[in-house]
Automatic annotation (TrEMBL), chains A, B:
The keyword Kinase does not apply. Keywords: Metal-binding, Oxidoreductase, Zinc. This is IMP dehydrogenase. Residues 25-133 form the Alcohol dehydrogenase-like N-terminal domain.
Length: 344, 344
């Protein structure tokens, strides 16, 4: 089969690789129908993660089961399945708690595991990991495109909103207008926030934010942005979604949180970070979040998506086929695309 | 009257100062019967805070009301009252939420306000701030000594436990064996933690920790301590109480927290801090806490204390009179005392 392989910074290639085969009785082989390129893929693409040549790419995907191992109980050949960006055994302490990203046996797609920017994958712990999609959606490409972001970006936006403690009738602020930030707006809206302020600077993205429910847009930077949010909210937002992952975005998030409120952080930090602990301390601002347990959220979000109540597909503004994956990376790297959908 | 006044690092003096008088109709004048020296007082005593000569000291106190302003409704001359370490108007958004430390009109005792290491204080917002103590305790010195720590250290230990999400039957770890850490052990016990691990190195303090409910003691440092707690708990404690406030203690706290768990931090940080955001992110470890809203906790903790169910007075291991305050500071600075009680 053909799959995307990392070679060097700025260099991913679609190549012939061995077909995936069942290795463990809990595996499934899935033919990919839809995948995405993630903002976090740009880290290795830009040489900022320690990736090795030969590693596979793509952690967001959906497809049709082709074969299951002898111990797979809940899935069969022909089922359409959605994969959260991490696989998990579904049985351990953390899987039982809904924190599947901490599964003792789990891992992430890509790297030394199969990746989703490919024709097919071997999926370990198929029962614990994959979520079957109702048969009724088959053939509805618009609905499939609305389901695809649940694999990561929409679940991550939801995790930011849940972690920030978004409440009905209160104010949420979202730092960052990337695909995750936009999904964070939609998640805050879905959880009932009355006022949703987005901090970003890209007109095309901010238009989607408005469409997703943002009531206010702040386009200034750093201290100026902080001042504006503090004034608009008379002291800060109860819930702040940090959807970037830099020191400066975290600083902004902590400064615009109302005393007693929370920052829900889902932007991937790299290593240690210097943060404003004094402000957190004096104002009892909590920091919650991390890598989203998408597997825990997908059933609930899928139900709303199938019912037509949740649709973040506007973040998928460019579509490529498998051969187009390298150009898709370049388009995201150049900020020409918000997020790329891949249809192998 | 006489009051303790800061002059320079290592130099606090008991001096004659003007008697306090009612300035605002919501004030009360309170004659101090009991006060404490706090571990956080050592910051200015050691020259680590930007204190100015002439500032008053002492934020933990209890006393008898001598006079009230015309708008004070809930207190009268002769009432015994306990003061949380921060005063607050009792009516604003944050006071209503139980986050009185963020009161728009509030402040802390000492500095440019009156301090508790004195014969008397002017207490602003007496109704919003002071808690009346039942008449029945009068004359019971043992009980009064058990009530006194609610002004700060016991409420702060409780805040650490609440912020760390201590749950019945689960494991809590407490970083630090100072007075706050010891109160954190007692708070975790009170909230039902089954296993309570304390990390500390002072035998006398650890003996109190055991008396307060610690089931395990870890006396090693840094990475060794982390390894021991991870092994004992097979992956970390659900709740970790950070009761020191240094970068190293916060590092330890984050490393010994179980995925999905929380660090409740009450150790006073100074400025920014470099923290292990990557571990927090990958394991969804939350950071909660800050300056304790003691005013919100005192009624509940006072009830248990008066009922004989809560007694942290063992942390008050040295008692001095007002003239003894400077030697009390020296004893805490030299670690000869855990915490000093002052009886003016």
């Amino acid at each position: 089969m053909r799959a995307t392989v990392y070679h060097a910074p700025g260099d991913v290639r679609v190549e012939n690789v061995p077909d995936p085969v069942i290795k463990n009785p809990t595996d499934a082989i899935v033919r990919i129908t839809h995948a995405c390129i993630c903002g976090s893929d740009l880290w290795f693409y830009r040489g900022l993660d320690n990736w090795k040549p030969g590693w596979r790419t793509g952690h967001e995907w959906m497809g049709i089961v082709e074969e299951v191992g002898s111990e797979v109980r809940n899935l069969k050949k022909g089922d359409r399945v959605l994969a959260p960006f991490a696989f998990s055994d579904g049985t351990c302490e953390f899987c039982s708690k809904g924190l599947q990203t901490s599964c003792f046996e789990g891992g992430f797609w890509g790297g030394q595991n199969d990746g989703g920017q490919a024709e097919a994958v071997r999926a370990p712990f198929a029962d614990g990991t994959l979520v079957a999609i109702p048969q009724e959606v088959e053939g509805d490409e618009k609905l499939l495109k609305a389901i695809l972001p649940l694999t990561d970006v929409m679940s991550t936006g939801h995790h930011a909103a849940v972690s920030a403690g978004v409440q009905k009738g209160k104010t949420a602020a979202v730092v960052g207008d990337g695909a995750v930030g936009l999904c964070g707006v939609l998640a805050a809206k879905r959880l009932g926030a009355e006022r949703i302020i987005i901090l970003g600077r890209h007109e095309k993205r901010l238009a989607i934010a408005r469409q997703f429910g943002a009531t206010d847009v702040v386009t200034s930077r750093d201290e100026q942005a902080v001042q504006e949010v503090i004034e608009m909210t008379k002291g800060g937002a109860e819930s702040v979604l940090e959807c970037v992952g830099t020191e400066s975005s975290m600083d902004t998030a902590i400064k615009i949180t109302r005393p007693g409120g929370a920052v829900g952080f889902v932007g991937v930090p790299h290593g240690r970070g210097s943060i404003n602990l004094s402000r957190m301390f004096m104002s009892n601002i909590a920091l919650h979040g991390g890598v989203a347990p998408a597997r825990a959220y997908i059933p609930e979000l899928l139900k709303d998506t199938v019912a037509g109540k949740l649709d973040s597909s506007a973040v998928l503004d460019v579509t490529v086929d498998l051969n187009g994956v390298p150009s898709g990376y370049a388009a995201m790297d150049n900020r020409e695309a918000i997020k790329v959908m891949v249809q192998p």
